[in-house]
Please model this.
Amino acid sequence: MTLTDHDDPVFSLHRGGKMEVASTVPVGDADDLSLAYTPGVALVCEAIAADREVAHDYTWVGNTVAVVTDGTAVLGLGDIGPAAAMPVMEGKAILFKQFGGVNAIPVALDTTDTEEIIETIVRLAPTFGGINLEDISSPRCFEIERRLIERLDIPVFHDDQHGTAVVVLAGLYNALRLTEREPDEIKVVISGAGAAGVAIMKILRSAGVRKISVVDRSGVITPARTDLNEVKRFIAEETADWAKPGSIGDALEGADVFIGVSGGQVPEEAVAAMAPDAVIFALANPHPEVHPDVAHRHARIVATGRSDFPNQLNNVLVFPGVFRGALDVRATEISESMKLAAARAIADLVSDEELTEEHIVPSPFDPRVATAVAKAVTDTARRDGLARRPY
Model:
């Protein structure tokens, strides 16, 4: 079989791409043409020139997001470049539409230079109501997102960070409901100090979790280490009150929760040393850090990033609703409070009667999800003064 075998159903589905542009208005005669284009369109242009906010009502801007990548951290494939990243960006775009009713346009940039990426997105920004950063490698992704938030007055959201963090917190909320524990009681080990690991650490702290250890290839990240970059020094400072030097095995001894976003494999003997009623979120794809069969021998609740096991912690539960809500109120940013509200909204969709060890988050196909997340985001944006549409 060749790499692009025509009989392969995957390639058959992708032939010609997964998206198209469709008109929302008729252009069937001269009258239609005069309204959709010249001369009628000039009236709308003049209105927008007088008040830029009008663009949100009379162009696609109010419901359109750019999905931007440089192709340096695509899925588990790594740095495969912008052209090879396009199938993933198209896939993300159709999920925005399917689950949130949000138009999304893939933008693959042929540069890995931080300054060039920032400047390019800033110049493209008038075309969009929001920016979803995707598959940009760490640590550049942190600076790119931070500086875009500073320069733009529309939502900027790096899904690899915050989408993952929100769905992890949603799953953790319900895992704690099942095991009758509180956030400030639990001991959490996060394997991976990249984009997702940092964001998970931050949102867990915002949710009241205090006993967190973050582990990379060299062991637990603490202030005592001399090999830390700026991001890892931030992790060390944030977790200094609890984290102790050692290996992942040392960190997991007596731990209540393991969250894997690294792709590295964790020895079974380390997992076996966790506390009773342990929670394991092994989210690497396609090979979880702890295989579910192994995890179930030692943990009460197990989740992965895969669709072929129970409890898939999938970002699609998050980003369509987050952007739906942010666009609906023309939010200037997506705040930490909005992310916390989104996580709680997802968790609360699983009732006490439905909540089991194999059902801690709703299905991505549950039609309530995007609506609930969007409402949580809009309510929080209005409460915190981040909504330009306050009604």
User: Anything to note?
Assistant: The domain at 161-391 is CATH 3.40.50.720 (Rossmann fold). The longest helix spans residues 159-179. The chain has 16 helices and ten strands.
